[in-house]
Specification:
Elements: E1 12-19, H1 22-33, E2 36-39, E3 49-54, E4 57-64, E5 74-80, H2 84-93, E6 97-105, E7 109-115, E8 121-127, E9 142-149, H3 152-163, E10 166-171, E11 174-178, H4 182-189, H5 193-199, E12 209-215, E13 226-232, H6 236-245, E14 249-257, E15 260-266, E16 272-278
Parallel strand pairs: 1-4, 5-8, 9-12, 13-16
Antiparallel strand pairs: 1-5, 2-3, 3-4, 6-7, 7-8, 9-13, 10-11, 11-12, 14-15, 15-16
């Protein structure tokens, strides 16, 4: 798989998790995914920021929770932008909220923490030295980011205005976000991608997909709108067993869904994520996931 070096504006590009005990989280995720870690903070810094790598390529990060941050650990989604300041203004104009004004992250980049009108939080990332995840879509790396919401129509208006996203129905009750033109970027990096997508049964426009759009089930009234992360794995069942042995909790046992076999896991400090194996023969399955992954 080719390594990434940057992303087009409007594409999720990075994930990290703030943890009460980052060293313990490093032990969990290195055992689960085989990640190697390097603390990027200068000596004497009050917080830690461990960048995780596979084959030397950045895949994610584990850091200390910011002062005044949420009580529970969580995974955070970053979306690549040309200007964090301009995007923050777009968020406000579209009815969202800027939780943290744009600020510089040393020489790595400039970012802001924002929420959509339903309250789902994400980060916008204006890259400098840090160019986002270098390895994606391989076992142990980021596979998808997903918006979980009760207001799909409102989300379509908001994310369309801020990033130019459009919704794409992919069959089996599954809906995704596409960024027109993203497939052109991918095809330049990986010639033949469009044909491979078509040969595997992907619907027209699938090569432009940047994220998933997931409804929160009516029987989950306490689940807020949020962004989730999905990691690719080579065996969802084995990953669930390994997570439990390392002290995590399997919220949803492995099950088959359109295109994938997946499981929902919470790490020992409360950050929830999805582990998913691509199973093309599952493409025609009716969606079993809607009611089960809303808490992810």
């Amino acid at each position: 798989m080719l390594e990434r070096d940057g992303y087009p504006p409007g594409v999720p590009c990075w994930i990290d998790t703030g943890q009460p005990d980052p060293e313990a989280a490093v032990a969990f995720y290195s055992g689960l995914f085989g990640w190697d870690f390097e603390d990027m903070m200068p000596p004497g810094s009050p917080g830690r920021y461990f960048v995780a790598r596979l084959r030397g390529g950045d895949v994610a990060a584990v850091g200390s929770q910011p002062e005044g941050g949420p009580a529970m650990a969580a995974w955070n989604t970053y979306i690549w932008v040309d200007s964090a300041d301009e995007t923050a203004s777009k968020v406000l104009d579209a009815g969202g909220h800027v939780a943290t004004d744009p600020f510089d992250v040393l020489e790595a980049g400039r970012m802001a923490v924002v929420t959509d009108p339903a309250g789902a939080a994400f980060r916008v990332w204006e890259a400098k030295r840090h160019r986002g995840a270098r390895i994606v879509n391989e076992p142990g790396s980021l596979n998808f980011n997903g918006l979980n919401t009760r207001d799909a129509d409102g989300a379509k208006s908001f994310y369309g205005a801020v990033f130019g996203w459009q919704s794409l129905a992919t069959g089996g009750g599954v809906e995704m976000w596409r960024l027109p033109g993203y497939g052109d970027f991918l095809e330049q990096r990986d010639p033949g991608l469009r044909q491979r997508v078509a040969d595997s049964g992907g619907p027209e426009g699938f090569e432009d997909v940047v994220a998933t759009l997931n409804p929160i089930a009516d029987d989950q009234p306490d689940v807020p709108a949020h962004w989730s992360v999905t990691f690719a794995v080579d065996d969802a069942d084995a990953t669930a067993k390994r997570a439990a042995a390392l002290g995590g909790r399997v919220l949803v046992a492995p099950f088959d869904a359109p295109w994938v076999r997946m499981t929902v896991i919470t790490d020992p400090q409360g950050a929830t994520f999805i582990a998913s194996k691509f199973v093309p023969e599952n493409q025609d399955l009716a969606s079993q996931s809607d009611a089960r992954v809303g808490a992810a």
